């Protein structure tokens, strides 16, 4: 019987470089790599806001591979301000809807997909009302949801 390998701790001075790598791994469509890096950072700096945001986004990047929404929403609940909690909850719901749409574009799933998009839009509306100055991220996400619905649902 062999001993299971143990995780090695990241040194605090390596955090900025590690977070930069996590962003690159997300861009390279390797969210599991980014997730691992973010968990390493959070293991030594549990309040690191950038690592938390990148971890949430990395988890949402993996929604098509399996359910991770509860874990992502749990992380969002611990974010430091109401805007972030609202905005990133919207992102989790929106990306969950898109992943479900890609996996099951049939009519049985459409009601759930539409419901998730509607939740995301309501969260973006709330986030827009409390957004920091010069930050229209919630507007951009809202518009993406509207275009998703226009492209995939018939409205009369």
List the helices and strands and how they pair.
Blueprint (H helix, E strand, L loop, with lengths): L14 H13 L3 H14 L4 H13 L7 H9 L4 H22 L3 H23 L7 H16 L4
Helix pairs in contact: 1-2, 1-3, 2-3, 3-4, 3-5, 4-5, 5-6, 5-7, 6-7
* Coarse morphology: globular
Q: What is the CA-atom radius of gyration, in angstroms?
A: 17 Å
Helical element count? 7
Biggest sheet descriptor: none
| Class inferred from helices and paired strands | mainly alpha
Description of the molecule:
By secondary structure, the protein is an all-alpha fold. It has two domains: 11-61; 67-156. It is 71% helix and 0% strand. Helix 2 (31-44) packs antiparallel against helix 3 (49-61), helix 4 (69-77) packs antiparallel against helix 5 (82-103) and helix 5 (82-103) runs antiparallel to helix 6. The mean pLDDT is 93.
What labels describe this entry?
single chain; mainly alpha; 7 helices
How is this structure best summarized?
The protein is mainly alpha-helical and 156 residues long.
């Amino acid at each position: 019987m062999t001993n299971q390998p143990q995780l090695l701790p990241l040194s605090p001075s390596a955090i900025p470089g590690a977070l930069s790598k996590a962003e690159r791994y997300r861009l390279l469509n390797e969210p599991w790599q980014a997730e691992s890096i973010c968990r390493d950072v959070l293991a030594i700096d549990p309040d690191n806001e950038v690592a938390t945001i990148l971890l949430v986004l990395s988890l949402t990047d993996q929604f098509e591979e399996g359910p991770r929404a509860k874990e992502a929403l749990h992380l969002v609940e611990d974010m430091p301000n109401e805007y972030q909690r609202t905005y990133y909850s919207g992102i989790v719901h929106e990306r969950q809807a898109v992943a479900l749409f890609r996996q099951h574009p049939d009519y049985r799933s459409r009601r759930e997909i539409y419901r998730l998009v509607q939740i995301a839009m309501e969260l973006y509306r709330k986030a827009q009302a409390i957004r920091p100055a010069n930050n229209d991220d919630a507007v951009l996400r809202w518009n993406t949801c509207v275009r998703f619905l226009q492209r995939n649902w018939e409205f009369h």
